Structures are given as C-alpha cells and as structure tokens.
C-alpha cells in the first residue's frame, strides 16, 4: 500500500481522493508579512480560508497540495489547524518557488546543503514540527531561463527525490530542455516530475508540452481561472476559451494520463491582491463545466483529479544517489 505525506501525517494512497495539485493557502514574496496595503487581520484570513476549503470539500475535494515554498508564506502549523477544521488533507512542499524568491540566506549554499535541507523536511519535519513535506518545489526565475541558483536547486531536488521517493513540482515549464537535462544527469526518471503552468499565458509552447509527456513527465494545466476577461487579471492570464481549447488539444493528442488540472489560487493572498473571486473552486464551478459542454466525459475528470495525482504523490522507494549516478 502506498503512502502520501500530509501535514497531519502519512495517509494511504487510497484516501487521497479528488486532489488539487497546485494551490496555495497563501503565497507571497519574502517580506510580504510586512506589507501594509494588502495585509489582512489573521482572523479575517482564517475565516476566508476556511470558507474556500469547506467549499472545496463540498465539491468532493479531499486533498489540497499547497505549493508554497520556503520563505513564501508556508506555515505548516497553520495548515494543520485548517486541515483539522475542514477535513481536507493538505500536502506541504519543501523547496523554493524559484531562485529569485529564495531568501538570501540560501543563495550561496551548496547542492549538498540544499539536498540535506529538502530530505530533512520530507523525512523529519518542517520548521521544527513533525509535519513532513510531500513534494519538492522548484522553479524558473524571471526571464524564462534557469539561472545558476535555479540549476543548483533543481539538482538538489533531484537528489532529494531519489533519496526519499518524493515527487517534484515545478513553477513553470519554460526552459524545460535544461531541466530535463539536469534530471537525466542526476538519474531521476521524468515520471517523478510535474512540470507546472503549461497553460501560463506568457510561456505557451505546445511542442514542449508534448515532448514532456512523450518522455514520461507530467504536464500541469494549473493556472486555470487566470482569465484575461476578469478585472485585474495579471500578466500571465489568457482568454478563458483559449485555455479550454488548448487543454482539449492536449487530450486529443492522447495525453490524458500525463495531465493534471489545478487553479494555482490563493485562499488568501499575502502581500498582493490576488485575483478577485479566484479560488480552487473555479475548477468545479467554471472549468469542468466548460469541459462538459465540450463533450468531455466524467471518466476524464476522475483520471485528472484522482488517479493521476495519486500516481504523482505516492512516495516511491528511495534510490541511493550513487546508484543514480552509475545508471547515467
């Protein structure tokens, strides 16, 4: 029987249920806690977050993967309270959203140091708690290319994944060839990586997405709901129907079993306004109905929201780093 790490302890894979693979309780850049314009009182943030998670539960949602990296508002003790109050399994991550949002303390650390940090948070606990990370977050810094620190983080994540069996979730698919080369050099199969934000309006590349899927990686259509028709939509938004058609094309290529969907929404954004009205529940209230209108069957949603997330999140048997190097 497989297991998945949640903030309240490991659960059997069979308990995962409907899963949102790329979400946030609250994401902000380092220093967001000092913000004055968008700061909310803790009790207000708590109530707003409870409402959204309870609504998620009403839609049948059981597991919420919080992809907030180190230094970006991750608070596992808060996650634990929310999980107990709502009945939603919450999976926390170790790692960084990208090098340019990593706290300065980490910027000169070695690959070995970063590997040990990620392994500790997966096997021992986060921030002095016994809440263990269930995945590793990495990402591409602004500009669309992996910089040197990004590459160190990717290598450390690959080694930590081999040591612990945890999957990797990326922020953005951009510069995928460089990422794939790093994972190959480290001996990590691509079926342990979810390449995120393939539907991001700033970095669309359908040939790239097909390549990732053909090589065995997972492709995240997980900025769903950032629609350019919405007032205040950020620069990575795109027309709602354009995203739907993009996703349908990916399915028509035979890649249903390589795709996941999620909203990358904040329950309560930190240090920025977020997108008004956007939450994980957009999946159930807008996107899935759009797909149903296009003729997509219920078995597709079961694959996207239950079976594929279970394959990604289930912890694999560790592989020693030395074996991975030998196997190159």
TrEMBL record:
Presence of the UniProt keyword DNA-binding in the record: no
Q: Name one GO molecular function term.
A: hydrolase activity
- Residues recorded as binding Zn(2+) 1, renumbered to this chain, are 22, 24, 137, 264
Record keywords, A-Z: Hydrolase, Metal-binding
Cofactor binding comment, as recorded: Binds 2 divalent metal cations per subunit.
Cofactors that this protein relies on:
a divalent metal cation
Which residues of this UniProt protein bind Zn(2+) 2? 137, 171, 197
Query: InterPro entries this protein is in?
Result: Metal_Hydrolase, Phosphotriesterase
Q: Which residues carry this modification: N6-carboxylysine?
A: 137
Matches recorded under PANTHER family: PHOSPHOTRIESTERASE-RELATED (PTHR10819), PHOSPHOTRIESTERASE-RELATED PROTEIN (PTHR10819:SF3)
Q: Into which family does the record put it?
A: Belongs to the metallo-dependent hydrolases superfamily. Phosphotriesterase family.
What name does this protein carry?
Answer: Phosphotriesterase
